[in-house]
Fold this sequence. Notes:
The complex is a heterodimer.
Chain A: H1 35-49, H2 51-55, E1 68-71, E2 74-77, H3 94-103, H4 118-121, H5 126-138, H6 161-169, H7 183-193, H8 199-202, E3 220-222, E4 225-227, H9 243-252, E5 254-255, E6 259-260, H10 263-271, H11 278-288, H12 330-337, H13 339-342, H14 361-364, H15 369-377, E7 379-381, E8 384-387, H16 396-410, H17 419-426, H18 434-464
Antiparallel strand pairs in A: 1-2, 3-4, 5-6, 7-8
Helix pairs in contact in A: 1-5, 3-5, 7-11, 9-11, 12-16, 15-17, 16-17
Chain B: H1 17-26, H2 29-34, H3 46-59, H4 66-79, H5 83-97, H6 101-110, H7 117-128, E1 130-131, E2 138-139, H8 146-149
Antiparallel strand pairs in B: 1-2
Amino acid sequence: MRRILLSVPRIATVSAALLLLLVAVGANAAADMPDAALVQRGEYLAKAGDCVACHTAPKGQTFAGGLLLPTPLGPIVATNITPSKTHGIGNYSLAQFSDALRRGVRADGAHLYPAMPYTSYSKVTDDDTAALYAYFMQVVKPVDTSPPPTALPFPFNVRASMIVWNALFLDTKPFQSDPKQSAEWNRGAYLVNGLAHCSTCHTPRNLLMAEDGARALGGGDVGVWHAPNITSDANSGVGGWSVTELVGYLRDGHAAGKSQAAGPMAEAIDASLRHLDESDLRAMATYLHSVPPLRDAADTRPVFSWGAAGDDLASIRGVALPKDLNEMTGPQLFDAHCATCHQAQGQGSFDGGLPSLFNNTALGRVNTNNLVMVMLEGLHRHPDILMPGFAKDLSDRQIATLGSYLTQRYGNPNAQVTAGQVAMLRSGGASSNLVLLARAAMVAAVLLIVVVIGLWARRRRRVQA
Amino acid sequence: MSTSHSASVDNLVAPNPVRRGVLAGLLGAYAASLIPWALAQPVADSDQGAFLAVSAILVGRSALDAAATKRLYDALLANDASFSASTRTLLNLINERKIDPLQLQQLLDDEKSPLAAIPRVIVSAWLLGIVGSGERARCLAFETALNAVMVADVLKPPTYAYGTYGSWAGKPG
């Protein structure tokens, strides 16, 4: 679900203090609700929206911004969304709050970058927006500091360009429930497509960095991580998961014999999903089961179904390690670094506390970025470390050898890890040519105009002559 | 490939009348009474057969993994060129003198027999997985060494993870 890295928010604020427009449009239906209940609902909704994930820097003050969200264009800085009147959104009216949340327009009229998932938040109802507003204004503690402003390279520093982008990609239609579906399904659709903003990560993006609606929830890349396919497809998606397994995964971050959350998804579960009511998680799972299936041709069987217990101990016992440890075989690396926890045959710990390596989507997908990232960084769930990282212990080549061995032995044998891939992920991901492309396109456009003017002038001279 | 602690029996190759006959021919009546199952166990040749028979008598198990038998035999032979001849002599000795396996080592030691070292290296190989000593020591089995297999209902080397990662740091309940 949600954000971080390339996706990510960047809510309103920043120089919001400039604005004195206190439009004070009172609440509508939400006005009927007693304040305490309204604020409480707002807090729950803020968790569902996982605002904290981006708007709180590591070890920073809650909602005070400062997290750098790496995008292919450069870092976007999440802003202070506390009700500080000088540095936050303290002077925002409900209408301004709503525009920032659902239209990507901050109080001074400037446009937010779509790292802030306002394309999803546009589905949030008026009532829920009012509840969120009440929570942020009445409960969140104001913090009078601002992170440095976002400074993307030209031409992306021209925020007005977002007007064109929004015209193309922002669907301002509010959520419409489908009377043919159950109330549970509709609740799930509202959460998945709205506040939980699952598509921000799980839907691939087009050249202009907008979500590709034709491949909704079909799997996207989020910086160095891959947000997998969560459509209802039985092989590539979650069609083979039961609702109970999905609910357990969203709440606990793992499902036995299926998968475990790592990276941005682990954060989403820690900060957001595990706080949601069971009924809401069940609704989301029910809706996900109905998302049109999309299949990756490489997934010839369910990605969680590959592999079986086994070992290659006979190839390593009694055999000396190579002098150059980069030459170690996959079974040797597994023996040295994995087997003490995942056990000799990859079967995981007896009480189920550590997952098996077979029947595990981590080794069943052809995209092995997440596998590499987990080997490098480990798996962290606040406040626990579920698996240590090996970035300092293993070289790129060792991780490539080990990763490819693991997929051959316990996962999808077509999945490979290369040393180049490990080096790229270790250094923070593939570099982007978007800035260069945009500038080249502008130069080309200027040249074209010059040529057209030149031709036109020459023709005019000829006509005059 | 694919040996599990408890799957040693599964790893035995399919019975082959000729190879099965090799072992039967090696065992005298007394040795055969100690390990009656071994009559049905196929072996590659008579030298390995003698090793398998002595191994079975010494470690007291009703089946031994065929791949492990070969690996340990090859390693022991590489360490000591007279190993196979000594083992055959030992098997004959056990059979002829009807030696109780539990008394074997004591008897050889008392008699200062040149064969006294043989039961020790065979038992070390099967139980510890180690062949040779000092700088020449090689660990040929760890997870599948019999000392681990015998307690595999509780201990599962190489893991010390009996719960989640880090659970070993907590106080036992």
